[in-house]
Task: inverse folding
């Protein structure tokens, strides 16, 4: 997403980002995934950042393939009006039989992170981050992007006026809330 003439637009630029995405739309898979995140990830974000996750923006399985030289150049996830509500990003590896495809934070040095299969890298959407080019195999990642709270949901809805045609407007009704945590 980029800001062009005051509007948030989707721009496809394979020099900047190259990957294939599958949008999960099956309600039972989304519900199961939400339940696991609520049990395992949401409490950790609360403990470490004193932030209460209330919503998850989308559910994607991404494929970074070596044959495509798949990558994602350095970027932030909340720099436009249409993305200003985003607070945390999650990148969960579904496999580990690939080379490259590591997540890095260039402002903080050259170290990169490759979570094991089933492991995740969770970070603030404000951090500059990148995914290195996959050089062998295919990296499959679950991207339940993005996590935010109810206050950010209001920002998301208020910024509808800044979305370009085709981006899709947001209302509290079409945002996917995370179900309440069981006690």
Result:
């Amino acid at each position: 997403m980029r800001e062009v003439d005051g509007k948030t637009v989707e721009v496809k630029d394979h020099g900047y980002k190259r990957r294939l995405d599958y949008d999960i739309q099956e309600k039972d898979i989304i519900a199961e995934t939400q339940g696991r995140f609520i049990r395992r990830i949401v409490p950790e974000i609360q403990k470490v950042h004193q932030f209460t996750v209330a919503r998850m923006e989308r559910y994607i399985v991404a494929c970074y393939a070596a044959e495509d030289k798949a990558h994602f150049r350095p970027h932030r996830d909340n720099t436009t009006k249409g993305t200003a509500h985003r607070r945390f990003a999650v990148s969960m590896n579904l496999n580990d039989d690939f080379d490259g495809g590591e997540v890095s934070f260039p402002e903080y040095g050259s170290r990169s992170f490759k979570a094991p299969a089933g492991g995740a890298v969770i970070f603030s959407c404000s951090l500059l981050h990148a995914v290195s080019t996959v050089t062998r195999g295919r990296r499959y990642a679950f991207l339940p992007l993005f996590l935010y709270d109810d206050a950010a949901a209001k920002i998301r809805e208020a910024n509808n006026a800044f979305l370009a045609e085709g981006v899709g407007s947001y209302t509290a009704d079409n945002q996917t809330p995370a179900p309440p945590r069981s006690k």
About this structure: Confidence is low (pLDDT under 50) at residues 179-183. The CA atoms of residues 79 and 183 lie 36 Å apart. The domain at 18-174 is CATH 2.60.120.620 (Jelly Rolls).
